[in-house]
Automatic annotation (TrEMBL):
One of its GO terms (cellular component) is vacuolar membrane. Residues 6-386 form the Amino acid transporter transmembrane domain. InterPro entries: AA_transpt_TM (IPR013057). Keywords: Amino-acid transport, Membrane, Transmembrane, Transmembrane helix, Transport. This is Black hull 4. GO terms for molecular function: L-amino acid transmembrane transporter activity. The chain crosses the membrane at residues 12-28, 34-54, 80-100, 112-135, 147-170, 190-211, 223-247, 303-325, 331-355, 367-388. It comes from Oryza rufipogon (Brownbeard rice). The lineage of its organism: Eukaryota, Viridiplantae, Streptophyta, Embryophyta, Tracheophyta. It is a multi-pass membrane protein. It is found in: Membrane. It holds the Pfam family Aa_trans.
């Protein structure tokens, strides 16, 4: 594989390697063993829609980004639709980062409390606020080159987490005696499981950038196959491993089940904590840039101050949402069902059909796109409904 293609492959792996890794054992417990076949089906569908996005880019040399594809297909409305889904997805992922950090830090340091006058913060809420204070200054940076370099450790971190969990089971005494259901398929839990599986493959907004960065663009489909295959193997291994260890008792993040006193557990948890801290600014910056673009004319010479204010308010708003909805798995299932399914499955198919026209498609293409649209629509409706109902139930 050429050096440039290998570098793009690493960037693709990083785009697909995220905190969804922690939720796949819980997804397996929700959907049953047969749901692993759906994980593979979701991976195949998302790989194919990634290919469709790049075919759309070949239709016009002026296309450089995902919103450009939306505009080429559906005009200004298409650009706004793609941008809206992408920005809301990024916002909720950033919120999920804070919830994840709060959950895992609370496991490492139980009983922590800080009191300032009449205000007292403890446990997960305390750590959500503290992490926000740490990441807020990183969002003020104009150049995120250093953070981008650090966040590239995501691929390595994902492997370390799986190996640490395996070590906890095989060496540190946790074992593989988790009590799971004997039912191979749980229909009631499928919407949640599918939402979480789709959340794992939310790298489509980056694919156009990766495609344009390649000198040998003909290698892109092969590169994407490698990325999806390796990530699916990693996700599948973690799902099976975590479920065999804890069965139906596996929590929304498998790291919360690990015995905190063990070194392997500490390695897994600290590695888990590193990625959200380094990636938070990368996730919220596109949202902040879009807001700043809207108010640039009114900012004038105070553009820098406006930028800091916008990004600080953005961080504060994610803190508020994280404190109000501290349900990591349910929130990420909602992101997967309502947003990722649109960005990764429905919109690529719709844009492709719109740009090239149905008559130009082969029968195999038509069947594949039709199947993806049906699957995506079912997940969008059922997954969004069940995720919202579970969040509402937790709040009541």
């Amino acid at each position: 594989m050429p050096v440039g293609t290998a570098r793009t492959c690493m960037n693709g792996l990083n785009a697909l390697s995220g905190v969804g890794l922690l939720t796949v054992p819980y997804a397996l417990s929700e959907g049953g063993w047969v749901s692993l076949a759906l994980l593979a089906a979701v991976a195949a569908a998302c790989w194919y829609t990634g290919i469709l996005l790049c075919r759309c880019m070949d239709a016009d040399d002026a296309i450089r980004t995902y919103p450009d594809i939306g505009e080429r297909a559906f005009g200004r409305t298409g650009r706004l639709l793609v941008s809206a889904f992408t920005y809301v997805e990024l916002y909720l992922v950033a919120t999920g980062f804070l919830i994840l950090e709060g959950d895992n830090l609370d496991k490492l340091f139980p009983g922590a409390r800080v009191t300032l006058g009449t205000v007292s913060l403890a446990g997960k809420r305390l750590f959500v606020v503290l992490v926000a204070l740490v990441v807020a200054p990183t969002t003020w940076l104009r150049s995120l080159g250093v953070l981008a370099y650090v966040s590239a450790t995501g691929v390595f971190a994902s492997v370390v987490i799986v190996l640490s969990v395996l070590w906890a089971a095989a060496v540190d005494g946790v074992g593989f005696s988790g009590r799971g259901t004997t039912t191979p398929l749980r229909i009631a839990g499928l919407p949640t499981a599918l939402g979480l599986y789709i959340f794992c493959y939310g790298g489509h907004p980056m694919f156009p950038t990766l495609y344009t960065s390649m000198k040998r663009k003909s290698q892109f489909p092969k590169m994407l196959v490698i990325c999806f295959l390796l990530c699916t193997l990693n996700y599948g291994a973690m799902a099976v491993l975590g479920y065999l260890m804890y069965g139906d008792g596996v929590l929304s993040q498998v790291t919360l089940n690990l015995p905190s006193a063990r070194l392997s557990s500490k390695v897994a948890i600290y590695t888990t904590l590193l990625n959200p801290v380094t990636k938070y600014a990368l996730v919220v910056t596109p949202i902040a840039a879009a807001v700043e673009e809207r108010i640039r004319g009114a900012a004038g010479k105070g553009a820098r101050a406006v930028s800091v204010a916008v990004r600080t308010l953005l961080v504060l708003s994610t803190v508020a949402v994280a404190l109000a909805l501290p349900f990591f798995a349910d929130l990420m299932a909602l992101v997967g069902s309502m947003l990722n399914v649109a960005v990764c499955m429905l919109l690529p198919c719709a844009c492709y059909v719109r740009i090239f026209g149905a008559p130009s498609m082969s029968s195999v293409e038509a069947v594949a796109i039709g199947g993806i649209l049906v699957l995506g629509s079912l997940v969008a409706v059922t997954g969004t409904y069940y995720s919202l109902m579970k969040i509402i139930h937790e709040l009541v």
